[in-house]
Amino acid sequence: MEQTIPTQTLTYYSRRKVDIPNTEQWTIQSHLERRTYRIMAARPVGDPPPDGYPVIYLLDGNSVFGTMVEALRLQCRRPDKSGVMPAIVVGIGYETNDPYPPERFYDLTPIPSKEFRKLSAGVPEPEQGGAEAFLQFIEKELKPQIESEFPIDRRRQTLFGHSLGGLFTLYALFSKPESFQYYIAGSPSLHWNQEYMLELERNFVAQAKEKPVHARVLFGVGELEKSHECRNSDRARSLTERLTDIPVDIGVKAEYKEFENEGHVSVLPILVSRALRFVLNPDHQD
Q1: Helix, strand or coil for residue 222?
Q2: How do residues 35-81 score in pLDDT, each as one tens digit?
Q3: Residues of 78-99 as b/e, b for ≥16 C-beta within 10 angstroms?
């Protein structure tokens, strides 16, 4: 005998936007070039340590801020088990929902280049060459604001960048190494501004011999990137080897990590997780 299933009236409650806990965002306009940035910040729950929290400055905040904040929130609950201590995350992005807006080409490239060739039909070549002004904005304007509002440990500051952000991360390391103590260069676009970056690297090494720096550098790439025509995996590996060959007393420690079966974009979540252990290990106080 067929049973009759009673109908049930579903009750729908009001819906609202899903927010990431303990985060906020605002806009800021740079004084030097009047460029507008969306700043996203996340802080841990609870009282800060006596020296303040480590801080991670995250480039391309539109694309990866949520990924890093959630990865950190889950892992920092037990630093003794995870090797990840609580930290503040500051994402630097733009006033759009596009994960990779064209404005980034200007901020993340040191000098204009014609190496950017693969454009869709009708798409103009993006403006380039604003890395110096962008780094000055981070150092002279953004950092002071963050440090005035959040308890920051200035001895544990990280810059995280991927792709063109990885290129900018290395630009910052070579041109102003004292800005951060940890540099994460994910799949860095080292085919851009090649001669310029090599010259910066040579100057960096020469100056470090006179005034040692204290920087830990992590290169992270996807295994599947090795077949790309730009050969940035090879370039990143070679740069890691050159930095590793620098005398120990100069103070640079570099690591290269290749992630199995990951490509240029899919490598980001796993690199974020690896980077957290690299920069927030409570046993690394150097």
Answers
A1: strand
A2: 999 999 999 988 899 999 999 999 999 999 999 999 999 999 888 88
A3: eeeebbbbbbbbbbbbbeeeee
Cβ atoms of 38 and 62 closer than 8 Å: yes
Catalytic one of 187, 189, 264, 273: 264
CATH number at residue 60: 3.40.50.1820
**Residues 225, 233, 262, 273: which is the catalytic one?**
225
pLDDT at 126: 86
177 assigned to some structural domain = yes
Question: Is the four-CA dihedral 73, 75, 81, 87 of positive or negative sign?
Answer: negative
163 is catalytic: yes
Does this model's pTM top 0.85? My answer is: yes
Domain region containing 40: 23-112+126-279
- Which of the residues 63, 82, 163, 273 is marked catalytic? 163
User: What's the length of the chain?
Assistant: 286
Question: What DSSP line would sit under 156-190, residue for residue?
Answer: EEEEEEETHHHHHHHHHHHH-GGG-SEEEEES--T
Helices (H), the chain: 61-75, 79-82, 103-108, 131-137, 143-149, 164-175, 194-210, 232-244, 267-279
In angstroms, rounded to a whole number, what is the distance separating the alpha carbons of residues 174 and 267?
25
The confidence score (pLDDT) of residue 228 equals 85
